[in-house]
Amino acid sequence: MSYKTNSDTIQFDQEQRNQISTAAAILDNGGIVAFPTETVYGLGADATNPAAVRKIYDIKQRPADHPLILHIGDIARMEHWSQDIPESAWMLAERFWPGPLTLILKRSRHVPDCVTGGQDTVGIRMPAHAIALALLNAIRPEKAIAAPSANLYGKISPTTSAHVQATLAGKVDMILDGGPCAIGLESTIVHVDHQTVSILRPGGIAVSAIESALNQSVILTHHNSRQTIRVSGALPAHYAPSTPLRLHTQAEIYKLALELAEQHFQIAVITWSDIDPRLFSTPEIRHIAMPPDPVEYGKQLYAVLHRCDRIGLDFILMESPPQKPAWLAVADRLQRASQAYLKT
Ligand code: TXA
Ligand code: MG
Fold first, then answer.
1. How many other β-carbons are positioned within 10 Å of the β-carbon of residue 256?
2. Is the CB of 189 within 6 Å of ligand 1?
3. pLDDT band at 227 (very low <50, low <70, confident <90, very high)
4. What pTM was computed for the model?
5. Residue among 60, 61, 69 whose CB has most ligand 1 atoms within 8 A, to mutate
6. Ligand 1 atom with minimal separation from the 187 CA
7. 125 Cα nearest atom in ligand 1
8. Which of 137, 138, 176, 185 is nearest to 3 (CA)?
9. Structural domains in the chain?
């Protein structure tokens, strides 16, 4: 699958062009714009304006030491925002940008402290979405967009503009609509230095694709969540719906779902394997069948969890994903979503 998008070849209509230039003017003047990317919607500010960047932390209720990703519209800008760039970082950028990959590099003096949470590294990514790229090319050339996912801290990322609207309407200056996100899970975060390449967060680009692009094996550090606390997505309880979510095997789910339904709890049962839906034909249970393919599953996951939250259920029972490398990003998000409720 190719994630490449060239904004020059996309024809925007007049209204879209107006919206993009309005959004660029808002950013240039220190405002906040939620915008679509191919992974999830972002909450953007001018990265060179500390007052604007601080607004993002306020809106998200995010701790100040959790750094933001710098979004750029051109690979060559990597040299402006970072320094001492290893060859492997150039290879990854050329292979996967625009696309769902964030590179953690040594920051340059152009990056304000508030973007990096005071660290000496900076996360950089070039998103593969025509609207995001058009917006990045419409702001002043010396700027970039600092953007986390456009959700409240710890909650599920938005994959449609309606998801953003539901929590952030009235708190941001503009929400750009670009339809549902094509990937649906956040970018893969990769730390690169001259010796090693480590995956800090599995995501839209598979680990195997990174290894074959570099012809080198990579280190998986995301399991080591307590040591990498500054990657906020690496906190054990993150990406969580408001409804308590539990992960179970198919056999456990049959039993548990029927027990809970007997006690009149309203539940969602979300499965990916072949399961007979008639087993769940009681009004207390909503059965949601997910695709058995990890890419398709990832694309739908957050929208399904947002929908469960909107319905107002007592529990979400989720079938554990397969323990295969291709499912790493989905398994990581589900693990964290379930961690939030283990103690309740
Ligand atoms: O797909 C994505 O990456 C989306 C879209 C909007 O681009 N953005 C996103 O941002 O997921 P956010 O802030 O929700 O997650 C970014 C993660 C955070 O966990 C943050 O701690 C980590 O990237 N991060 C950013 N800069 C870092 C750095 N210098 N070192 C380590 N982690 C960093
Ligand atoms: Mg996030």
1. 16
2. yes
3. very low
4. 0.94
5. 69
6. 1
7. 7
8. 185
9. 2-84+97-184 (3.90.870.10), 245-339 (3.40.50.11030)
